[in-house]
Amino acid sequence: MLSLHKKLAAAYMVLCISFLSACGFQPIYSQQNQLQVAQEMTQVRIENIADRHGQMLRNQLIDKLYGSASYPTSPKYRLAIKNFDEEITSVGIKKDATTTRGRITMTAHLVLTDYTGKILLSRKLKAVNSYNILEDQYGTLITRQDAQKRTIFEIADDVETQLSLYFAAEKS
Predict the structure, then answer these.
(1) What pLDDT, on the 0 to 100 scale, is given for residue 17?
(2) What is the CATH number of the domain that holds 76?
């Protein structure tokens, strides 16, 4: 009886894989795709982003897109992060109206263009993190800065993912 279940499961897996290949599914992280996407990523010029958090985001993007490669001398693409905003709200409020938790929401608008100015990709990104508001002001400052840093890293991850998906789709 158990062998019958194994045979049915194997047949089901083969059927599922054949459907995936028929719809044009290709894994984004296959070795060939990964090399092509990585080469395209090194051809993206990252525009400056205003404010300290913008600088942190840009530095994260440089690390993610270029890796060990050098900054592109004649890039094919231009990446702009527009409307990079931060909103801090109080979410944990006690009965005595003191706040115990804060939420940081960062939004950004990603625009990838070629050097003719044609928009290739435009996405709105959003990341949310929270932090504890402590009685100690210094402790609260440190936890808020850590939450801001984590949120910036999430936005950078989202930018990298969006670019990877775009370049993988263009190469297939």
Answers:
(1) 62
(2) 3.30.160.150
